[in-house]
Amino acid sequence: MSTVARQIPTQDFQISRISDALGAEVVGLDLSVPLTDDAFEQLRDALQVHHLLCFRDQSNLSDEAQLAFTRRWGELEVFPEADKTKSETTVYNVANVSADGKHLGPDDNQSVYQKVNARWHTDSSYRYIPSFASIMLGVEVLPDEAKGGETEFSNMLLAYDTLSDEMKAQIEPLHMVHYYEFGRRLFSQLPPITPFEREVVPPTCHPLVRIHPDRGGRRSLFFTTNAGNEVSGMTLEEGQALHRKLASHASRAEFCYRHRWQPFDLVMWDNRVLLHRAKHYDMARYRRVFRRTTVAGAGPIVGPFTRIQQ
């Protein structure tokens, strides 16, 4: 008996730029269906150029389909957090809603964790090998009349390019200390990290200047404001002053794109070159639920003085 191979239909879709700083919108692609090789190559090229892709109307995307799409890009990252809204170690619900659907108050620990995300950051910077990309589905988003709730992104390639020569020279040899516990210190009501979390994600240092071999050696800033504010090689006060200056620089409008979520948007962004932060909204009034998966990084960050093994 002969068998007929299952054919995946040709996938036609449009990619269009959504801001001068970063980002592109993808329309006409159903990610619940496996990608053809040609479609995946188009998306990979688009992510490299635009750094963020927004796939509209992904209401058919199940947990399993989102995990399959994420695996297409690389190894899945495992989350260390033992919180109430996580369904499994590779799927993280960024939400003020519990796993059983209860709307949590603004003072609930899970809601407070979301406030940590209101500061500029790149996901998993507290790891020795930070993540490559995050993929997040808007399961419950704010209504049109609600204020806030957007996610803002900042292009660190552009941010580095526009630094003065003096600032570039100053930060070239410097590293920032990143540690998972810092977010807990921002809000004293949060419980301390567990011994398991402390063991899995100990503090680490990364260069403030990140070099991208896949972009011809182009440079970007690499720092966060939710995982530390200390700079190795400087006094605490000097390092924190430099950190504040870089955070202010990253907030300049010409580097940024603010995404207003539509129902079942799936947004994928490159953590290697973008910072992001959640904008404030009325947590007591509105439910907000995102399902996030993350593509693990391929290796440690390359900085100006990194020795690359041949």
Helix and strand composition category = alpha+beta
The named CATH superfamily: Clavaminate synthase-like
Quantity of strands, as a count? 15
Our count of domains comes out at 1
What would you call the quaternary organization? single chain
What is the CATH topology? Double-stranded beta-helix
In CATH, the architecture is 4-Layer Sandwich
Strand content: 15-25%
- Annotation field: number of helices: 8
Main sheet: strand order: 1-2-3-13-5-15-4
Q: Which sequence of SSEs, written as H and E, runs from N to C?
A: EEHEHEHEEHHEHHEEEEHEEEE
Determine the N-to-C terminus distance. Answer: 51 Å
- Helix content bin: 10-25%
Summarize model confidence as the mean pLDDT: 92
Sheet of most strands = 7 strands, mixed
CATH class: Alpha Beta
The low-pLDDT segments are: 1-7
Instruction: Please tell me what the overall shape is.
Output: globular
Taking all Cα atoms into account, the compactness measure Rg is 20 Å
